[in-house]
């Protein structure tokens, strides 16, 4: 099993991050990624930039971590777009793999954004599509 340091040494451009804002949500999202049901994600655009996270870039490979900080999967970004919360569509929601429909997505993400810095129906989102390059948990990709 590779250590996080070995992975970063081999991929110095890689960012590391956790999905969600709790162990339960992180575990659930990683399971969806490993099953192939989740190939997209989004986040509030304001978390990127000065003093924040690096914006995903097409072709860059980043490491999603388990909640405890162990490397989970390496993801390669295949598309990055931005859109307003209110402009989300069913196709992107389906690619996220977690939601029954657009309304279920709106409810889940509004609650998530309210827990993590605030919600505005006009807020801009970073929308990313990705593919799994490597699963560090020993799961076949």
Automatic annotation (TrEMBL):
It comes from the Bacteria. Gene3D superfamilies: Sulfate adenylyltransferase. Residues 17-134 form the ASCH domain. Pfam families: ASCH. This is Uncharacterized protein YhfF. The lineage of its organism: Bacteria, Pseudomonadati, Pseudomonadota, Alphaproteobacteria, Rhodobacterales.
């Amino acid at each position: 099993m590779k250590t996080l340091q070995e992975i970063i040494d081999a991929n110095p451009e890689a960012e590391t991050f956790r999905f969600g804002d709790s162990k339960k949500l992180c575990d659930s999202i990683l399971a969806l990624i490993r099953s192939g049901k989740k190939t997209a994600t989004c986040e509030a655009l304001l978390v990127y930039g000065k003093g924040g996270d690096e914006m995903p870039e097409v072709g860059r490979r980043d490491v999603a971590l388990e909640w405890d900080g162990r490397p989970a999967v390496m993801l390669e970004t295949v598309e990055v777009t931005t859109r307003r919360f209110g402009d989300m569509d069913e196709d992107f929601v389906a690619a996220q793999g977690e939601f029954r429909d657009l309304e279920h997505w709106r409810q889940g993400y509004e609650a998530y954004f309210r827990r993590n810095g605030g919600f505005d129906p006009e807020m801009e989102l970073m929308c990313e599509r990705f593919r799994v390059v490597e699963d560090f948990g020993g799961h076949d990709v």
